[in-house]
Design brief:
Layout (H helix, E strand, L loop, with lengths): L2 H17 L4 E2 L7 E8 L2 E8 L5 E6 L5 H4 L5 E7 L5 E10 L6 E6 L3 H9 L2 E6 L3 E7 L3 H12 L2
Antiparallel strand pairs: 1-2, 2-3, 3-4, 4-7, 5-6, 5-8, 6-7, 8-9
Helix pairs in contact: 3-4
């Protein structure tokens, strides 16, 4: 087989594996922090931590409709993580609008040991609010690696 064809097939396969991840690692020049990102429509969620922290920073950036408008100015959220067998974990998170911006929320996601296992083994994550219902939904492919990195870097 032609060497260029083999290299092309390998490149396509590798790019598909990266593309197939719901959670992707964000690059950082520092080795004392780690961040992962996922998307849902026009919204982006970033979770990460700094060395020594026992919780995950949560940053949700909205799309065309400002988050404060769609959440009716009440940024209390629920994170739902569903396992492949249908069991679901529920995690409350209080957020605030980032730096006066009406389209970005920041907060802290506190996960106990069960929550960390749900995150690593989950099939789907949803974020909802009492006012807006479910407004963010993503798969969990790549979340096991993300949790492993969070535990290693941040000592979660």
């Amino acid at each position: 087989m032609n060497k260029n064809i083999v290299l092309g097939i390998c490149a396509i396969t590798l790019s598909f594996q990266v593309w197939a991840q719901d959670w992707s690692k964000m690059s950082s020049a520092r080795d004392d922090n780690i961040y992962y990102q996922t998307r849902s429509g026009d919204k982006s969620l970033m979770l990460g931590c700094l060395s020594g922290e026992d919780n995950l920073s949560f940053t949700l950036i909205g799309g065309d409709t400002p988050l404060h408008q769609s959440l009716h100015h009440n940024p209390s959220l629920i994170v739902w993580i569903t396992l492949p067998d249908g069991r679901t974990g529920r995690y409350a998170i209080d957020t605030e609008y980032m730096g006066g911006m009406d389209n970005a929320l920041i907060g802290r996601l506190l996960l106990g040991e069960e929550g960390k296992q749900f995150f690593a083994q989950g099939a789907e994550m949803e974020i909802s609010s009492p006012q807006a219902g479910v407004f963010f939904r993503t798969g969990m492919i790549g979340s096991a690696r993300a949790m492993q990195d969070f535990r290693t870097t941040c000592r979660l």
